[in-house]
């Protein structure tokens, strides 16, 4: 007993007094600059592929969606390294450097004509015989640079958000209340970065050249890494605790091994780490009633085999907390799957809206808005609405709900899903109006811009931008708050994987719809296509998807944390600050 008390005294009970808003500012910066470069590249790559690398329209769209999807999906790999081997800070620096090299390689290829084919777009008929596809060497340079960017940005996306969130101690009620605000302001910086990307960087690519555009992306990402290192002395760096995937596998293996054992009637007989043995950054999770089969992994074996072998090895006995960590991941899967379709709609909106903009009047007086800059419309709305949400909506909602974040994360995600279906319906109405103008002015076969302002597209984009503000921030906050300390980055990356799957499935959705409908989107002329029908279909499917989400959210049980009685923070305040109580979204 005396030795136990000695151990308690040597363990720090409070985290180092670092972090806070000042440290989080560096995470805001690298995340915003990374999105600026990535978003600017993503929205305009179709033009680069089609006009400078001689891809077909279909090949260009497929290459872009594959690039975007891979970048988001690989964030799982970056998160795994961050949680298992590297700190968040080291992951940002390492992957940021890879991203810099990728943009630099793309800039070199765009600068030297020998490294890319003779462009086919807008060339005189006398020079059409020089038009040829990119050779293997040129494609190798292109895809090497492109996927170095994808790998680099994936690591930054996985590590930068949790790096900033780590600067707030969830066990301190004051800092825990700031954590949700952190995700709102993170979205603000991401949106601001994206806005600079689709305006400033896109303008450079169209007026100064693609080599300048890629070079600017490489330089600013490099400077963001240097800026991140300046704050190194301020950070609360996570301590790696081994592979979270291994911990999950251990639970399944031990539970399967103990499948014939009977669960004890008293749950306190299950194996668990004690409060006086835990570090300050270790959460002890309460047992929940879902997935009782997995509870068998925490059964203390008392038979002769257990007494003569290493019964307490990680592959033979797990703690209740480890079992609950696994349950959390399993419970999260339906939530993330129910948000995939919204991101499929986002991918469709990005590609088809850009094409719609090319058929419309894009002039503001003498200035013509680049088609790739159309996403600036929802970004401007989000920049205005995020501070309003943070400064006005949350305080008012908090008075009615008593919840520090105003509404629960799952409720916030649900609001975003509803708005996404509304956005698809509005997109269908606007497209119907656009086609009616083409018919009215006998411009169905004309390549000239219709007498209809491109800002009509702002309605659907603004609503979807608002939906993204609710859903993406809700997902980031939800996965970070609900995950254990050993898998914060991995859980954050799961939210990005929803975007990845959405981009991958977008082209599949178009192919299926074309095949079943007889070719709603088969023409190369939007004035003849039935894009409005397609948008109505997406709106209807979004409503069904929301129904599925309601079931998943109602079934989900928030994690419950046991509070160490030796901690200075009252348990009721910790629970209130962290918001870890069961809820129903309906």
UniProtKB/TrEMBL annotation:
Localization: Membrane
Keywords: Membrane, Transmembrane, Transmembrane helix
Membrane-spanning segments: 25-51, 63-81, 93-112, 182-204, 210-231, 328-349, 369-389, 410-430, 459-480, 492-513, 533-552
Keyword set includes Transmembrane: yes
Domain of life of the native organism: Eukaryota
InterPro entries to which the protein is assigned, alphabetical: MFS_trans_sf, POT_fam
Membrane topology category: Multi-pass membrane protein
Keyword Transmembrane attached: yes
Family to which this protein belongs: Belongs to the major facilitator superfamily. Proton-dependent oligopeptide transporter (POT/PTR) (TC 2.A.17) family.
PANTHER family linked to this entry: OLIGOPEPTIDE TRANSPORTER-RELATED
Name of the molecule in the record: Nitrate transporter
Species per Swiss-Prot/TrEMBL record: Solanum tuberosum
């Amino acid at each position: 007993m005396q030795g136990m008390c000695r151990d308690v005294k040597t363990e720090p009970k409070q985290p180092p007094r670092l972090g806070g808003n000042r440290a989080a500012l560096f995470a805001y910066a690298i995340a915003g600059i990374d999105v600026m470069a990535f978003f600017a590249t993503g929205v305009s790559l179709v033009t680069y592929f089609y006009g400078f690398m001689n891809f077909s329209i279909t090949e260009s769209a497929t290459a872009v969606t594959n690039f975007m999807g891979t970048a988001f999906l690989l964030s799982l790999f970056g998160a795994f390294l961050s949680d298992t081997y590297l700190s968040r800070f080291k992951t940002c620096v390492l992957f940021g450097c890879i991203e810099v090299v990728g943009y630099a390689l793309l800039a070199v290829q765009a600068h030297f004509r020998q490294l890319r084919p003779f462009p086919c777009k807008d060339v005189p008929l006398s020079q059409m015989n020089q038009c040829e596809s990119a050779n293997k060497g040129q494609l190798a340079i292109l895809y090497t640079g492109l996927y170095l960017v994808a790998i680099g940005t994936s690591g930054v996306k996985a590590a930068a958000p949790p790096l900033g969130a780590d600067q707030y101690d969830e066990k301190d009620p004051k800092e825990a209340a700031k954590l949700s605000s952190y995700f709102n302001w993170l979205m603000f910086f991401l949106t601001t970065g994206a806005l600079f990307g689709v305006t400033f960087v896109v303008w450079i690519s169209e007026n100064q050249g693609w080599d300048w555009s890629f070079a600017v992306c490489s330089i600013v990402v490099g400077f963001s890494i240097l800026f991140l290192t300046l704050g190194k002395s301020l950070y609360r760096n996570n301590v790696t605790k081994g592979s979270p995937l291994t911990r999950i596998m251990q639970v399944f293996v031990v539970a399967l091994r103990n499948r014939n054992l009977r669960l004890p009637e008293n749950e306190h007989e299950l194996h668990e780490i004690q409060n006086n043995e835990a570090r300050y950054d270790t959460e002890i999770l309460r047992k929940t009633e879902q997935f009782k089969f997995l509870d068998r992994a925490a059964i203390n074996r008392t038979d002769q085999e257990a007494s003569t072998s290493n019964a307490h090895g990680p592959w033979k006995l797990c703690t209740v907390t480890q079992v609950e960590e696994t349950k959390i991941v399993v419970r999260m899967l339906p939530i993330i799957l129910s948000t995939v379709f919204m991101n499929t709609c986002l991918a469709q909106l990005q590609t088809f809206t850009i094409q719609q903009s090319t058929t419309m009047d894009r002039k503001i007086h003498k200035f013509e808005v680049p088609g790739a800059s159309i996403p600036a419309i929802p970004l401007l709305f989000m920049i205005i609405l995020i501070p309003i949400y943070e400064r006005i909506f949350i305080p008012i909602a908090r008075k009615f709900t008593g919840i520090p974040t105003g509404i629960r994360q799952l409720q916030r995600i649900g609001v975003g899903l509803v708005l996404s279906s509304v956005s698809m319906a509005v997109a269908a109405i606007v497209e119907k109006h656009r086609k009616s103008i083409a018919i009215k002015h006998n411009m169905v076969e004309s390549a000239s811009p219709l007498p209809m302002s491109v800002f009509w597209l702002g309605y659907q984009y603004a609503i979807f931008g608002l939906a993204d503000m609710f859903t993406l921030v809700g997902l980031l906050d939800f996965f970070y708050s609900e995950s254990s300390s050993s898998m914060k980055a991995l859980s954050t990356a799961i939210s990005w994987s929803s975007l990845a799957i959405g981009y991958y499935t977008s082209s599949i959705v178009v192919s299926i719809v074309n095949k079943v409908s007889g070719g709603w989107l088969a023409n190369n002329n939007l004035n003849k296509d039935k894009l409005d029908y397609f948008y109505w279909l997406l709106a209807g499917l979004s409503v069904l998807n929301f129904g599925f989400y309601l079931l998943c959210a109602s079934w989900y049980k928030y994690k419950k944390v046991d509070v160490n009685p030796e901690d200075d923070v009252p348990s009721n305040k910790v629970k209130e600050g962290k918001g870890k109580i069961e809820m129903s979204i309906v």
